[in-house]
Predict the structure.
Amino acid sequence: MKLTLDNPPTVAAPFGDRFAHVARLDFPGGGALLTLSGQVAVDDQGAVVAPGDAGAQARRIFEIIGGILAAHGAGFGTVLHIRTFLTDLADLPAYAAVRRPLFPAVPPASTTVEVSRLFLPGAVLEVEVTAAVPGHGG
């Protein structure tokens, strides 16, 4: 197995280069496992998008996640698990309305928790994803 930590050019670099956007574990027979860092809704300069608006933040977060997945040969159809942190569970319907269309068949395994706050003021949502990269023939 081979481990790669990556910040693909398809998304803005993480804050202060303190972490990698994705850890990729390649398997000898082909295919890989991707574990994405938690993503918040920021623009390319690192400013929070739509402070306090869970729906708008969800759209931006899934744009970022989509870019990271695509850079590694994966997509929303290969997502195995989603972990969501909300500062208010009352925002769950707005988040779900954005997330639901991305997974039209059976949605991936999921964990959702309410937290008191996130690391950026105005951010109300953070999403982590684990996905698979198909191997040859799979």
